[in-house]
Please model this.
Amino acid sequence: MASEAEFLDGYDPSAYERLTLAVDLVLLGLSGGSLAALLLERQAHPHAGRWALPGGLVGIDEPLEAAAARVLRDKAGLTQAHLEQLYTFGGLDRDPRMRIVSVAYLALLSERAFAEALAGGSGLVAATLDVPWAGEAGGPVTARAAGGAPLPLAFDHAEILALAVLRLRGKLDYSEVGFALLPEHFTLRQLQDVHEAILGAPLNKPAFRRRMLDRGWLSATGLREAGTSFRPAELYRFQRPR
Amino acid sequence: MASEAEFLDGYDPSAYERLTLAVDLVLLGLSGGSLAALLLERQAHPHAGRWALPGGLVGIDEPLEAAAARVLRDKAGLTQAHLEQLYTFGGLDRDPRMRIVSVAYLALLSERAFAEALAGGSGLVAATLDVPWAGEAGGPVTARAAGGAPLPLAFDHAEILALAVLRLRGKLDYSEVGFALLPEHFTLRQLQDVHEAILGAPLNKPAFRRRMLDRGWLSATGLREAGTSFRPAELYRFQRPR
DNA sequence: ATAATAGTGTCTCTCAGACATTATGGC
DNA sequence: GCCATAATGTCTGAGAGACACTATTAT
Model:
């Protein structure tokens, strides 16, 4: 979109052989205290029987964000989720059928949204994520069924999933993404559980509390959790600072 | 790339109206001790007379990375630069001619590469960047000509430029991007100058030295800078840790 | 010797980890 | 009163900012 030659090339829509653009969504939530993704089993070739991220093609008159939101709605039945662009995958042989460039989005689901998507008859299945590396080192991620069996992933979706986990870990302590996985009211222990699940490592309780409260993101509701057989914890709410 | 309907849609290349995919490069380097970008003045409409990032359309048989490298070569005459994907811009009205989705790349140039691109007859002009926000707050960025006059940017390129600066600032202290702007051998003072230019704020000398040396990224060469009228500083080299 | 910057020693402050202790609600 | 967990106080060590001081080279 800069030189004259390209201007002319680009100006006549039929004069240029175009590729196909898609969006793929990494739907992440918590399942049984550990990080999990929602996947679809592919019925048709290529990669039939393997597991794929829900995705869809981007319409000619559709903004990228809108395409991602549409996939979230149509494939997972959800209208509310933290959605952010992750990375664009543009290798030649991602899909054996044709050239498809895909913009990957990270979608973070609250426990309720996660359950809703699973129950919605969408065919989505929860896969817990096995992350064998610590910190932000990066590396492969294994998706496992409830029983523990590895789920082979279609296309380059293992790579996309791994990048999603890396991004999530990286943003966790300086951004608000941690709250996207929690309900509106939550205890500090729940917040810590979320962080520990994402980081894959235990955290120090007093230090965690101090850090979170000092951030100014939390406002106490005065309410307390119910149903415990011991001292109930205070419920907090996320509040965007100022 | 997931459901059956989309599979069929996507399988016949002529059955689907395709958009155009481009790459745009944010070429950043240092000019006169401050952060600067290389821009091209648009000759034709739309946005004639405004300033644009160098870019190009992505070929149907061309990986995204290769397209970025091609633009770097053809538009700036460079074969060596730190190149990393920044973000994909996919709004509907980015370009008034037609729907163009653009994958933005961040290219970091050493002082030598920066000068080479300027001298290569490519038409690129150095614009110093005026960043009116501190830290990683984010916000608009103004490109200015050598005299200080603001250069109006074409399309959504002001937004892309701002995101590039934000990304660079964010990655500076935990990644190796700072070294991409330096020659192979450099002094600690030069490294600090680079960091200060990117952050737009002065840094504490002893603390900066300690941090950098403790990272394990630097290896002393035993050589010293030449041409000073005072004590010459030791020259270091960047060495990927282990 | 002087000038000018390279390079270091040290104090302090902040902040996180570790651990122990106190507080509190349900039974 | 007992239990289990919430919530907090305090010690310690790592690391950064501030500032002063020493080292070294060209002239």
